[in-house]
Design goal:
alpha+beta, seven-stranded antiparallel β-sheet, six-stranded mixed β-sheet, 17 helices, elongated
Length: 573
């Protein structure tokens, strides 16, 4: 910091002496200086004071007292010793008072800065000089409690850690559960007698007769190997994945893309279970679930959601009597079809429900690890409604085969009748459906997977299916008139009827009916396009449009004859 000079008044009535002239550097103004460049009659001494407060009341200064932090120069004339002594006394008196005032101001400033520093966590101990000042001050400082800030900081840090960590115990979730049941309204399912043998187990072998089952090899998805309960279901999970339709039905990336295309949601709305760890060891390692869905519609875009969740039931597979969750779920969009004849849910049942899809996801996320075995019938529909990506599944639809058609999936009602010899109620109850699917798969495990094909008793056959073609992936620009022109111009076969195109997002689907099965076969084989089979084994073709996009034309029934033989019959006609 640069030195600051103070000019003192002359001891006599004469012209004031220039302080800079008496200094070693001299005065820069020279003759233009307004002060005297003559030495005093007596011996004048130039005193440089290191104290910033060594000044009297007669000081003329260009700086304020509070800002003075450098040495000052005092000129004292020796010609007037009495006055000098008096002024010196005055200077010393005023200097002492000024020092006290300056020290008190500095103490206030230091006190303020110290409090602020402590608030930021400054725990440095004061220096000895500061301790002396505190001891000499009249006002005793308040004792500082060192424990309180530490408690606050610890509680704050613990609170932040709790906020960062998601709730890992599904039992402690505060969810607005809305209970519902239709079993009270319907007849209780009929159970088989103890002595009656299940039809599906007539030719099945004991699971202990064979040795260890071969593993399916390396898997892209985790297997339930970390717990005894999980290992019990391991082979069933592998068998479920080995089904030919698994890669299509459980293609979650496709479901996410459909959600975005239909405006139902985005990929970020989906959840995925966390890896198995300490947090999940006390949770049930196998659960049976079933969901009920309704149809909703976005009032802004008009896009429908055919799989809007409206009820969720979760049962502990280790103890089927324990229902972990059974609640109605409030759909996000207005409901256009409650499907009451299927699930028993009416409009008034959902009016006051507060439980939402996000509540359901929070429960499943807290309950399931990626090794939790989820059991059910056609689970891809339930997982899609929950928007839950999960691959550790035991799906009865992938493990039992229909007797009349190996490529078809038997319904849970038929499986229960064949395996458990029980009649299920007409109206679906998701708790009962989850438990029934669990019992059927336990039967499958007990017989080591060697069960008879399921006879479908409740199937509804479409007698016109052989004379129909299913057209899907239809773009919005395509109408029923375009489809009719397609068959007339490219196959010379006129359709009897084309159903209205049902749009879902950017694409739609419909059914085209012909006069007979031979007309439908002729139209299919005449269409130009690459032929392949869908996941169920039914023949389909890809027909391109001028725009570069394409539609899919698929047969409604499986070919009983080889395509070459059927084509010969068509050509002979």
């Amino acid at each position: 910091m640069s030195q600051k000079y103070k000019l003192f008044s002359a001891p006599s009535d004469g012209k004031a002496i220039c302080a800079f002239f008496s200094s070693p550097a001299g005065c820069r103004n020279g003759e233009k200086c307004k002060f005297s460049h003559e030495k005093a009659s007596g011996s004048a001494s130039v005193q440089v004071s290191d104290s910033p407060h060594d000044c009297s009341s007669s000081v003329i200064s260009s700086e304020s007292e509070d800002d003075v932090n450098a040495a000052t120069i005092a000129l004292v004339s020796s010609s007037t010793p009495t006055k000098n002594t008096t002024s010196t006394n005055k200077i010393s008196t005023s200097t002492a008072e000024d020092k006290k005032s300056q020290n008190s101001k500095k103490k206030k400033r230091r006190g303020d800065s110290d409090i602020f520093a402590k608030a930021k966590g400054d725990t440095l101990s004061p220096t000895p000089a500061k301790k002396q000042k505190l001891a000499s001050s009249n006002v005793s400082p308040k004792p500082v409690k060192h424990n309180e800030p530490n408690k606050k900081s610890k509680s704050t840090s613990n609170r932040k850690e709790k906020q960062k960590q998601p709730c890992t115990d599904f039992r402690n979730l505060d969810l607005p559960v809305a209970s519902f049941s239709v079993l009270e309204k319907d007849k209780t399912p009929k159970k088989a007698s103890e002595n009656e043998k299940s039809p599906a187990s007539k030719n099945s072998k004991d699971s202990n007769t064979n040795g260890k089952k071969k593993d399916s090899g390396s898997s892209l998805f985790p297997l339930p190997t970390s717990s005894d309960v999980g290992r019990k279901w391991k082979d069933v999970v592998i068998k479920t994945r080995e089904h030919k339709s698994y890669s299509t039905c459980y293609d979650f990336e496709k479901w996410k893309q459909l959600d975005e295309a239909n405006g139902v949601g985005s990929a970020s709305d989906w959840i995925k279970a966390r890896p198995y760890g300490e947090w999940s060891k006390n949770n049930p390692q196998a659960i049976a679930i079933d969901c009920e869905m309704c149809e909703t519609k976005d009032p802004v875009t008009g896009n429908p959601n055919h799989k809007a969740l409206c009820r969720l039931s979760v049962v502990n597979a280790e103890n089927p009597e324990e229902t972990l969750l059974d609640t109605l779920v409030k759909p996000e969009w207005p409901v256009t079809n409650y499907r009451t004849w299927v699930n028993g849910i009416k409009k008034e049942d959902l009016d006051n429900v507060q439980f939402t899809l996000r509540h359901a996801q929070a429960f499943m996320f807290a309950l399931c690890s990626e090794e939790t075995v989820i059991i059910g019938q056609s689970l891809e529909n339930d997982l899609c409604a929950l928007r839950l990506e999960h691959h550790c599944n035991a799906d009865s639809a992938n493990l039992f085969v229909a007797k009349d058609d190996n490529n078809s999936t038997p319904g849970l009602k038929d499986i229960a009748k064949a395996v458990l010899n029980e009649d299920m109620p007409e109206t679906h109850d998701s708790v009962n459906d989850a438990i029934t699917a669990l019992r059927c798969l336990e039967f499958y495990i007990e017989h080591d997977g060697k069960v008879e094909p399921i006879e479908r008793m409740t199937q509804v056959r479409n007698k016109f299916a052989s004379s129909q073609l299913f057209v899907h992936r239809i773009p919005k620009i395509c109408s029923t008139d375009h489809l009719e022109s397609l068959f007339l111009n490219h196959t010379w076969v006129s359709p009897l009827k084309i159903d209205n195109i049902e749009l879902t997002g950017q694409h739609g689907k419909t059914v085209v009916t012909f006069k007979s099965s031979r007309h439908a076969n002729l139209a299919f084989f005449t269409l130009e396009g690459d032929q392949d089979s869908d996941s169920s084994g039914r023949a389909q073709k890809k027909v391109f449009l001028r725009s570069g996009s394409y539609i899919r034309v698929r047969k409604m029934v499986h070919d009983k004859k080889k395509p070459q033989e059927e084509m010969k019959e068509v050509e002979s006609e």
